[in-house]
Amino acid sequence: MKHTTIKDVAKRLNVSISSVSRAFNDKYDIKKETKELILKTAEEMGYHPNPIAQKLSQKKTFNIGIVVPEFVNEYYSEIIIGIQEVFISHGYQVLIMQSDENADQELANVKTLINNMVDGLIIAPTMESNNMNFYLKQYQKGYPIVFMGRVEESLPASKVLFDNKKWSFFATEHLIRQQYKKIYHLSGYKNLSVSNDRIQGFLKAMDKHKIPKENYKVIEGGLMAKHGIAIVEDLIYKNDLPDAFFCFNDLMAFGVIKRLKSNGLRVPEDIAVMGFTETQMAELNTPQLSSVKQPTFEMGKKTAELLLKLIDKGPEQPETIILNGELNIRESTLNEKVTDNT
Amino acid sequence: MKHTTIKDVAKRLNVSISSVSRAFNDKYDIKKETKELILKTAEEMGYHPNPIAQKLSQKKTFNIGIVVPEFVNEYYSEIIIGIQEVFISHGYQVLIMQSDENADQELANVKTLINNMVDGLIIAPTMESNNMNFYLKQYQKGYPIVFMGRVEESLPASKVLFDNKKWSFFATEHLIRQQYKKIYHLSGYKNLSVSNDRIQGFLKAMDKHKIPKENYKVIEGGLMAKHGIAIVEDLIYKNDLPDAFFCFNDLMAFGVIKRLKSNGLRVPEDIAVMGFTETQMAELNTPQLSSVKQPTFEMGKKTAELLLKLIDKGPEQPETIILNGELNIRESTLNEKVTDNT
DNA sequence: AAAATCATCGGAAACGTTTCCGAAAACGGT
DNA sequence: ACCGTTTTCGGAAACGTTTCCGATGATTTT
């Protein structure tokens, strides 16, 4: 467990500590031969610079922190993988913490990460809370922070967003084109900006195609399958089922499909169901689920690159990157009566 | 960005640096009043000890590293959450790296983590490779390492395992009791010890119930849905379909179900399908998938606790924890002709 | 040949803690 | 009033780097 230090290497070669340091850091003021000699014997001695000492000396931790609501589902996992790819290749290590969809936990996580002196932070907030004030204050004090996902476009900081309104619109329009007449949107929690964006997209499509008000509805759901199940349950009880459901995410869609089937209803023959934020199960489910695929990996990479720039070059004009998705039509929203499937 | 240091606090109160340190570290040799005074003014000045400096001084990084094959699927995500819960509450930060089911990548990850001087390592190997020699050598040199999952019971180091053989046996026996006569096991890669354990369990059940050799088969699959699909495809082509499939994991089971359905076969009426390592989709799929639930969260916690002990108390007798699961019977393996569903 | 430049290196401060060692102060007992 | 403890504290070394500053000798310029 005894580590060989820079001193050991220096002593062995009868050179100074500074020379060894210079050799390892590619400095100009060292002769080529001595540098090579140093590197060679250091290699032989199994010397690796102690990262902690380097960090102390350089006043950088080469750690960055990520706070996400959760990473059990694929969405944030994939984003994290994208982030890691960028940072690890730049010599950083990534600390991941989850807020469990809880604003207090989120704030606590951010504070631990700051106390651990991470060089930068990526925050995917669970919801708009007054935490944002704290985060923004840190950002304005010069702490490098980049936001991701559930924040408003007006936020005065760099961020990477998905164009929820647009793709919600496209998804809804697809349902309309498939000639589903009565369409219900099961939204996410309404205190999430993404939920509202998708509601906006839904309503915009309704408006454009002049669907009468009694033929559509927005019902507040949540994030999980059980929310979809509960809502369908309720609608069955009220005898108020639509032709098509457009769900906030795939998980809710799976819940909806399950509950419909257990009531003897077929998807899509009786009722169509559309998801959002595509999961790998969309293809494997019966029926295969139509959904909107978000470019998770790319979102992670872009976010990481923004933060890296912020760390290296200091604060400049905040940048907002809005990414596009992909509407993947599958069995669950195909109306057999419609031949033109555009 | 200018941090207040221990010196600033000391100077302000005209005490020594050591006293401030003592106050923060709950040392005995400091008067209660001065300690409180120091803590109060430190608080006022917004002083937090610099963790990097602490780490350098204490020769500990308070970082631990985890290497997993992947964390897109729920299995490792949940394990990681269990690990984090233990370590974060003990003041550690957790560095997570994924090997992408690639042994070289895995080794590289372990080496980066060691170079980053993590205080301990949790390795969930992708497969038995000669990496194990390297890991064991580090372990024997005194580096705290705990293994998880895909390792053999004979490995001379602390580890947390799932009793794959036992639960594979139970799962298979359930299929036999449901009077499925011809049962095929789609295994995982045969260079994984877990695959072999589950094969053993499968064969043991066949043996116990004296199933004739021509009525069962072990087919090497993999880890993903597409492997299940490909195998079913092949069996259909060869006209060699069984009454029931027992799959290495849920993902393969979903692939199997999908491919069977697209051939007009019903699950479970025509063919039953059983998964393993239960996912949240098992309940939501149609039909609901029978599977074996692994105690992922607990596995994470146990692993973390083993490592924590290893770090704190040094190497003792290696400990092996083998955890039990839960056989969850659902629609996909219920034979309507059988009334006694035990 | 003197002066200026350049390449190469060593010494030491600095980064911000913890901790060892010893000293001063307070205290109790005789 | 003296001595031995105990309590409380300060000084300084140590952790392992990076980097600034200056020194030395070699090389080039005038």
UniProtKB/TrEMBL annotation, chains A, B:
Signal peptide: none annotated. Residues 4-58 form the HTH lacI-type domain. The keyword Cell wall biogenesis/degradation does not apply. It holds the Pfam family LacI. SMART domains: HTH_LACI (SM00354). SUPFAM superfamilies: lambda repressor-like DNA-binding domains (SSF47413), Periplasmic binding protein-like I (SSF53822). The keyword Transcription regulation applies. It comes from the Bacteria. Keywords: DNA-binding, Transcription, Transcription regulation. GO terms for molecular function: DNA-binding transcription factor activity; transcription cis-regulatory region binding. Coiled coil: none annotated. PANTHER family: HTH-TYPE TRANSCRIPTIONAL REGULATOR GALS, LACI-RELATED TRANSCRIPTIONAL REPRESSOR. This is Transcriptional regulator, LacI family. It comes from Arenibacter palladensis.
